[in-house]
Amino acid sequence: MKRVLLAIFTIFLFTFGFAQSAGAEGVQSKDERPQVKLTDEQKAELGKIHEDLHVKKKELINKYVEYGVFTEEQGKAMIEKLEERYSKLKENNYMMRWHHYHKMKERHLR
Asked: Where are the domains of the chain?
């Protein structure tokens, strides 16, 4: 019985130990991520695209309010949140930050 338990324990140890180290190979740490500097032309192009998206998202929210899917209050709250995110994006020169994604990915690989 002890040998069976030892064998099962050893299999689990090797299985989970190697799976964790193999999954962490492609992940870059914060220090290894490339630091990209956008030119003014690139920022302008990204800014135009983001502005178009921002306008379209506001139109979409207003249509949902018009059709009764969202209340006026919900629509206003959604547009406020959208405005906050857009202003932060502009402050960061249209460099999207995915902190929550990288944190989740790093936490998963531990």
From this structure: 40-110
